[in-house]
Every structure is written in C-alpha cells, then in structure tokens.
C-alpha cells in the first residue's frame, strides 16, 4: 500500500519546542522528506529560508502573523533543519530546490499564496512560483536576489572562499562554517545571541549532516556560465511578468545582500519598499516590518474586486 505523503514530525527537544510551538509536519516526496511548519487557517503564506538556516528563522514573524487568520507554511530546505540531509553535494541546485518546493505546494494544493523569501529562499520560491504561476497571489522578498546577471557577477570574499577546494570543505564540515560568522552579518550582532545560535546549530550538530551549507554557497553564480544561471532566467522572467502585489523589506546593514535592493526594484518597479537598519537575517531584527508587509499584501489580494 502506498504511504501517504504527509505525517506528523517527531518531537523536538523541550528547550527548542518551547521556542517553536507550532504544528510541524513531514512531506515525503521521492527520495526525500521535507520538514515544515503548517500552522493556522486562512490565506496561505509560504515562507522560505536560505543558507544555512531553517524554519526557526521565521518564528518571530509567525508570532505576529498568527494573530490574524492566516495559514503559515515554512519548509526546511532539503539538507537543512529537520529535512533529510543527503550527503551528495551535487543534488543541491536551484532547479532541485525549486522543484521540491513546487511539489510541496501541489501536494498541499495551495492556492492564492503569498510567497515570502529571504537569501536563497528568494530565487527558490521564485522558481516554485514560475512553475505554479496560477497559484501565486502576492510576494514579499527580503535580502535576496532574483535578478538574472547580465555581466560577470561580483563575487564576495565569502563566495570566493566557498569555491576554494579542500580548505572550504574543511571549514564548512569541521567548523560548521558559516555558523560562527552569522552575528557579524547582522545590524545588531546581539540579535543572534547564544540562545539563537544554539537553535540554528542544532540541526547541523553532526559532521555528516553538513553537506548543504557549502553546496548552497557554491550555487551562487560566480560566472555567466554557472549552472544556476539557466534557472535564474526562469525566475527573472516570472518576476518581470508577475502582476500581483509585491513588497520588498530590506536590511540595509547587510554586508552580503544589502546592495541587492536596487536589482530587485528593477524587477518589481511598483513594489513598496521598507528599508531598515537590520542586517542579513532581518527576521531576527525587524519581524514586525516583515509581518506588516505580508499583511498588506494579503489585504490587497483578498480585497473584494
């Protein structure tokens, strides 16, 4: 007998469950199981994290959103959080992750979705949107990049390091890189204190589970011939043609993607923009601004015609 695709997630340690008191489920598709939060009833909000985080990153935004009738869905990327962690780095492509998210959307039969993406969650949710254009009602993007490069990309020191063989493998595998550096990309480094870092490190506590952070770092295009470029073209095309409401919420003190705001404004010239003094993981610093943007988009998409 075929197994159902959804099951309840195993319990979390008590210290972590206290901070994440939401319904968690497992979606089994093909060879992989995806862990995700599925809480509330109402318009669907699909929130996708990036590297090297998991759905815990959205907990403060969820707390704000769930004061209203909404359904919040926050998946862990394969390789991250409590999703399966395959050890082959070659599976980690934008195409793979976009299709995994698309399968979840279709299995849940989500309609009129507001997608929310940060870091890699932007292009991954953008690709899922391109694969399911009729299901997407609105979008909120934060400190991400969905635009297709038209000239050789500017490569950050972090991504140059990630593409150096051997030394980057050792750093990511043995020292759980870039976890120790995360507070340094915040507007307020104290926003990622010991309690938060304990939660972010926990799913990657075993060396054998640390394949994805380096693989996702290497997914960032370093040249126009990079394998990610073809899928980014689909994301870019979807973004330029999307007619629903879009908001951009930005942490301007982000040393990684703070400058990417202007490129996203080119894709979404009519988007409302909220600039903040947060850093890269602005969910920890300005959750209220993110929740407000999401609520405005939902109000627009659900308003009577």
From TrEMBL:
UniProt-listed Pfam families: Abhydrolase_1
The keyword Hydrolase is assigned to this record: yes
Domain AB hydrolase-1: 43-285
Highest taxon of source: Bacteria
Segments traversing the membrane: none
Gene3D superfamilies (UniProt xref): alpha/beta hydrolase
Keyword Transmembrane helix: no
Entry keywords, A to Z: Hydrolase
Protein name: Haloalkane dehalogenase
Source species of the chain: Microbulbifer flavimaris
